[in-house]
């Protein structure tokens, strides 16, 4: 049996009203392009009627749909990884469930991929119709990783992955695996194509300000050494300052016979830096512990 051409991965979270129009749009564009495909829906334990809606759609489009339900909420990244691992297609396209990216835009990804032979094609939004803190947070994280990893700006969750990149992601063993960051480790041949971004019509984003902050923190800890570098610089600067203050303290005492609190200030500054360093080292030790424990990125409860 020949492998199908594309698997379209859709992480699902509280999106019962958008699932049918999303599937219809995907089917329309894939039939137009005459590619074999499957749509892999991964329901991320959203505690609404999304799973019931998927079961209803499955009865109508059995051969074109593959539905997975996770045992608890693992987040968009975990749900997407689950879909990639279970996909049967040679190439993978990932798209959100909220219809902010119209499924007909899939055509742009595929056509650009065929022309450019890129390993990864990201959808690039000229104008993002999301909340202000979501836009600002995303820009800051992307810019930080662009600088720290020496690559181009990290792409969106609307992307096409070539077959060998899909295989790399599947065999990359790491807890807290973030897809776009790992892609950057395996290829520099990533291209961008402009696609439209629509306002959200149903529900609200699953990313609150707190979740965005937590995600950013995990990305910094698991994919950069920025905190360690900052602490190293602070320790070096503090050591230089303490050395200079000590020389000045000795000179002042020899010349005047008086004592000052400069030395105590230096001690307190050193203690503050040491405490901060211990905190950072503790975070990275916990990272080593987590990698040894190998917490799962997802766990499947139901597969149909």
Features:
10 helices, alpha/beta, 304 residues, 8-stranded mixed β-sheet, 2 domains, Spore Coat Polysaccharide Biosynthesis Protein SpsA, Chain A, single chain
Task: Give a quick precis of the structure.
This protein is α/β, with parallel strands linked by helices and 304 residues long.
Whole-number average pLDDT? 81
Tally of contiguous helical segments: 10
CATH topology of the largest domain: Spore Coat Polysaccharide Biosynthesis Protein SpsA, Chain A
Q: What would you call the shape?
A: elongated
Tell me the series of helices and strands, N- to C-terminal.
Answer: EHEHEHEHEHEHHEHHHE
Q: How far is the N terminus from the C terminus? A: 20 Å
Report on this model:
By secondary structure, this protein is of the alpha/beta class. It has 2 domains: 6-224, Spore Coat Polysaccharide Biosynthesis Protein SpsA, Chain A; 226-293. 53% of the residues lie in helices and 13% in strands. The chain has helices at 19-33, 50-60, 75-86, 106-116, 132-149, 163-171, 179-186, 209-223, 226-256, 262-293, and strands spanning 6-12, 37-43, 65-70, 91-94, 120-124, 159-161, 190-194, 300-303. It has an 8-stranded mixed beta sheet with strand order 7-5-6-4-1-2-3-8, sandwiched between helices. The radius of gyration is 25 Å and the shape is elongated. The mean pLDDT is 81.
Q: What's the SSE blueprint?
A:
Blueprint: E1 6-12, H1 19-33, E2 37-43, H2 50-60, E3 65-70, H3 75-86, E4 91-94, H4 106-116, E5 120-124, H5 132-149, E6 159-161, H6 163-171, H7 179-186, E7 190-194, H8 209-223, H9 226-256, H10 262-293, E8 300-303
